[in-house]
Design a protein that fits this description.
heterodimer, A: about 200 residues, mainly alpha, 5 helices, about 85% helix, B: about 280 residues, two-stranded antiparallel sheet, globular
């Protein structure tokens, strides 16, 4: 304790011994200065620095961002355009394929229709022809029987008469009348009568 | 305040015996000013002297100038705002940024700048007319600033790495053969934990103390030689011119010592934060 007292007393003359009172008053002063500078002054300056940096770097950054955005939009549009072109060409291809397919289908349908019509016409024709042949055959048979009957009916008459009968028959034929009057009942027996009649002749 | 003015203009040259007609050389007593108020709290004597007045005048000047200069900060600064920003930026970027790292500039800049301008104004009182005594010429002020620096870098180092790793890398630097530690560890301990705060405080104190004595020698020498008269006028003139020269030199020393104090603090902090210190 006495040593401390001596130090305190001699601190006035020994420049290397710090004085406690000076330290405390100095700390208070330094604390006050720090409080003002660190709390108020330097934050203001930091804010100004930040604002300035933002004004410069922020401007550059904003410009770069805008540029990047524009580039992205351009790339997007280009991609979209390419897509659209691709799609259009795909549509064109599809349309062409569709057209070809439709044409082929139409051709096929038309061909099939034509064939069907042709076939139907042919069938009808052949049916008609068959009908006509049948009719003709029946009529011819009837006519032959008729003719044969007449010839047999007047067998004893003169050659002139026979000639007359034949001529008359032919004239009848030519006129077309009377042939139609022959009915189917008489014609059905004709092929046998005809063959019968032809035998003796 | 009326009592403060004679206290401020007071010149402490009272040490010499009045009966001695010879030259009265300046001594350590030149830092002892008569206190015009004193009080006693918890066993500690508080003396309010010229130095105490200058101390508080100093912080008022620094805080006032900075507050006035940064009153309205704009993106495009006014002259005074630019001045304040440059002054702060000198420490923030030139010391905290360059030494501790750009990322830490805003973290340590404010404290280091506060120390710098506190020390600077107290140093500059050495050559400011009427004041004409460096407050930092009293060991107490550099001592508590050095103590804060010491606590700060050790605290930051321990917080960054943990106490064990911090002291291990400090006392046992890696990449050294183990017998070297016998020599190296005491040196590292002594240099980092004892010498650093001591030199930090004493460097600043001694420069200011010596500078003040140097100025006093030439000033009082010139006055003495002019009083002697005769041929001594020539020497008195030389002494007076030297006073002017030394004043400019001391301006440089004042700036340099404030700068050295903060840059060393920054280096210690950087070392404590770095992986290998």
């Amino acid at each position: 304790m006495s040593g401390h007292a001596i130090l305190a007393a001699s601190s006035g003359s020994d420049p290397l011994i710090p004085d406690a009172g000076e330290i405390i008053l100095g700390l208070i002063a330094f604390g006050l200065l720090c409080a003002v500078l660190i709390r108020t002054v330097f934050p203001r300056i930091e804010t100004a620095y930040a604002a300035r940096r933002d004004a410069i770097e922020g401007g550059i950054q904003r410009a770069e961002e805008e540029q990047a955005k524009a580039r992205a939009a351009y790339e997007q549009y280009t991609a979209q355009l390419a897509d659209a072109q691709q799609e259009a060409s795909r549509f064109r291809e599809e349309a062409r394929a569709d057209a070809t397919r439709i044409r082929q289908e139409a051709t096929q349908t038309a061909q099939a229709e034509a064939e069907r019509v042709t076939r139907a016409a042919e069938e009808r024709l052949s049916a008609e022809r068959a009908g006509i042949v049948r009719e003709l055959r029946a009529e011819l048979g009837g006519l032959a029987v008729d003719l044969a009957g007449r010839i047999v009916g007047h067998v004893l008459e003169s050659d002139a008469e026979q000639q007359q009968i034949v001529d008359g028959f032919l004239a009848e034929l030519e006129s077309g009348e009377g042939v139609a009057d022959r009915d189917a009942a008489t014609t059905t027996a004709h092929p046998a009568a005809h063959g019968h009649a032809a035998g003796p002749a | 305040m009326a009592a403060a003015i004679p206290t401020l203009v007071q010149v402490a040259t009272a040490a010499c015996d009045k009966g001695d007609p010879g030259y009265c050389a300046p001594s350590t007593d030149n830092f002892l000013y008569t206190s015009f108020a004193s009080f006693h709290i918890a066993g500690i004597d508080f003396e309010i002297t010229k130095l105490t007045m200058l101390l508080y005048l100093g912080i008022v000047i620094v805080a006032g100038v900075f507050l006035w200069c940064t009153r309205s900060s704009k993106i495009v600064p006014s002259k005074k705002q630019w001045l304040a920003e440059e002054a702060y930026g000198f420490v923030r970027n030139g010391v905290a940024g360059d030494v501790i790292g750009e990322a830490n500039a805003a973290r340590f800049g404010p404290y280091l700048a506060s120390v710098f301008f506190f020390v600077l104004i107290l140093n500059l009182f050495e050559i400011i007319p009427v004041a004409q005594v460096p407050v930092t010429g009293r060991i107490a002020y550099p001592a508590f600033l050095a103590a804060i620096s010491w606590i700060m870098f050790n605290y930051l180092g321990i917080r960054q790495h943990g106490a064990k790793k911090y002291f291990k890398t400090m006392l046992f630097p890696p990449g050294v053969p183990w017998p070297i530690y016998i020599l190296l560890t005491p040196i590292e301990f002594f240099s980092t934990l004892v010498v650093r705060p001591f030199t930090l405080a004493v460097r600043l104190f001694a420069n200011m103390f010596a500078g003040h004595l140097l100025l006093l020698v030439f000033t009082t020498g010139a006055i003495y030689l002019f009083n002697v008269g005769g041929v001594s006028y020539v020497f008195g003139t030389v002494s007076g011119l030297m006073t002017i020269l030394i004043t400019f030199f001391e301006l440089l020393v004042d700036l340099l010592q404030a700068y050295i104090f903060v840059i060393l603090t920054a280096i210690y902090v950087q070392g404590a934060l770095a992986e290998e210190h």
